[in-house]
Amino acid sequence: MTLVTTSRHPTAQEEMRARVLAAELGVPYVPRRGSLDDLDAEAVLVVTRERLVVHTPAGEIFFHPGMARPRVRELERGKPDVMVQAMGLRPGDTVLDCTLGLGSDAIVASFVVGGQGRVVGLEAVPVLAAVVRWGLQNYDPDHDGLRDAMRRIEVVRADHEAYLSTLPAASFDIVYFDPMFREPVMESAHMRPWRALACHQPLSRATIAAACRVARRRVVVKERSGSPVFAELGLTEVVGGRKSRIAYGVLDAAGMGAPA
Ligand SMILES: C[S@@+](CC[C@H](N)C(=O)[O-])C[C@H]1O[C@@H](n2cnc3c(N)ncnc32)[C@H](O)[C@@H]1O
Q: 102 in ligand 1 pocket by Cβ < 6 Å?
């Protein structure tokens, strides 16, 4: 069960934001009384003046740009980014990120495609979508390019399987997936609460086929290097992974019959 509440001494505005958010999520709003531990819930979304935090028994979830910050700095210095290379990303491109998570990959993509491009991010878990939407719109990374890239991302709370079926053919240049790995690369403490709430549905060949219909140029899937998932999904071209634990499986539009 998920609940929404506020900090201990909320302003009228915070209380209103919490009520609106609870209504949007279709979950109860509970006026804050004492400790969050007294609320018997799988997740408590706490609205404060500065941020949105999800309290779970496994720890807290809140927005931060994570690796997007050093990756954008490297791009600014002219260094390559393996995801950007795997996507063949260019300014002005449109990207559908089917597994938004905390949005780090989407921020990097948004930075590269710029104001003439477009990045739409899908997140299936409502409470996670709420946190990332809030963060992308409100978190100040103290870096103009990063801030602009974050603000441009369109967050949609949706399951990608359902959403892909609503889109016209060839409507995005790149369709991207970074599903929850079967075995996490690093079981870092800060990822534990996210893993507890995230959608762990594995990608299927049917989802890749749906993505191929929507992608004008490429479908890209992030996985562990050497993962059997690439072959299972029919992704024969793999980019990166020689020195890294991460690799990207790529399907080109030319190879999947979609217009280039
Ligand atoms: C590994 S995380 C993505 C991390 C992200 N690329 C980043 O840079 O922060 C995967 C996310 O995709 C979401 N997800 C998994 N299956 C999904 C689906 N079918 N539709 C939409 N989101 C999904 C999970 O809930 C999780 O938040």
A: yes
Q: Is the dihedral of CA 153, 138, 69, 6 positive or negative?
A: negative
**pLDDT digits over 182-221, tens only?**
766 665 677 889 988 999 999 999 999 999 999 999 999 9
Indicate the CATH number for domain 68-256.
3.40.50.150
φ, ψ of residue 67 in degrees (nearest 5): -70, -10
Helices (H), the chain: 12-25, 68-76, 82-87, 104-113, 126-138, 144-152, 160-164, 192-197, 205-214, 229-232, 253-256
Q: Is 4 left (phi over 0), alpha (psi -120 to 50) or beta?
A: beta
Probe target for ligand 1 pocket from 84, 110, 123, with the most ligand atoms within 8 Å of CB: 123
The CB of 179 under 6 Å from ligand 1? The reply is yes
Nearest residue (by CA) to ligand 1, atom 3, is 101
Can you tell me which atom of ligand 1 is nearest the CA of 201?
Answer: 16
The answer, yes or no, to whether any atom of ligand 1 lies below 6 A from the CB of 180, is yes
Q: How far is the CA of 201 from the centre of ligand 1 (A)?
A: 9
Taking the domains of the chain in order of start, what are their residue ranges? 2-50, 68-256
Over residues 19-61, the pLDDT tens digits come to 999 999 999 999 998 888 888 888 999 999 888 999 998 899 9
For residue 144, report the distance from its CA to the centre of ligand 1, in Å.
Answer: 26
